[in-house]
Specification:
single chain; mainly alpha; about 0% strand; extended
Length: about 170
């Protein structure tokens, strides 16, 4: 019979066995705080990398600088040969993309882990979980900036988290 694995003999969709130990293991991993945190961190890293590439590609619209070594004369990028321009551009784009990817991954990992932990502790799924997780995440990320930065990071992340969570909880139009 010409059917894909897991589709059953009829060839229709929706055919995987809930009692399969592999399916149970994947579901258990997806429902654990550790699994959610890792997945959010990896997805954040991927999205951050794409966002970083996009943003870095937009920053080359003016030819007024060329990254050079310390003490070297700054030469406008337009005066370099094309191969050198591409080399400098791609190297800078990769560095910026990796930096953005690390930051997005860190935010995803921290926020989802903290929110999952709070949700498990409170045994509730409401806006307060996101607000508390946003506050803790923002405060942790801004801790090197001092108490004012921690308070600002806490307030900003909490407000953003509540706004997104409230929007996502709205009933659909269907």
């Amino acid at each position: 019979m010409n059917s894909f694995p897991g589709m059953g003999a009829s060839g229709g969709g929706g055919g995987y066995d809930q009692n399969d130990p592999n399916i149970k293991a994947i579901n258990a991993m997806m429902e654990s705080c550790f699994g959610k945190s890792v997945i959010s961190g990896v997805m954040g890293f991927g999205m951050g990398g794409l966002f970083g590439i996009f943003m870095a590609s937009m920053s080359y619209d003016t030819p007024f600088h060329t990254p050079g070594g310390p003490g070297s004369a700054v030469k406008p990028i337009a005066e370099l040969p094309m191969s050198q321009q591409l080399k400098v551009g791609f190297k800078d784009m990769g560095a910026r993309s990796y930096s953005t990817a690390k930051n997005f991954g860190k935010v995803g990992l921290l926020f989802s882990g903290i929110e999952c932990g709070i949700e498990g502790f409170r045994a509730k799924n409401d806006l307060a979980n996101g607000a508390a997780a946003g506050c803790l995440t923002g405060g942790l990320l801004a801790r090197s900036g001092g108490p004012t930065a921690v308070a600002g990071g806490c307030a900003a992340f909490a407000a953003f988290s509540v706004a997104i969570d409230a929007y996502m909880r709205q009933p659909s139009e269907d």
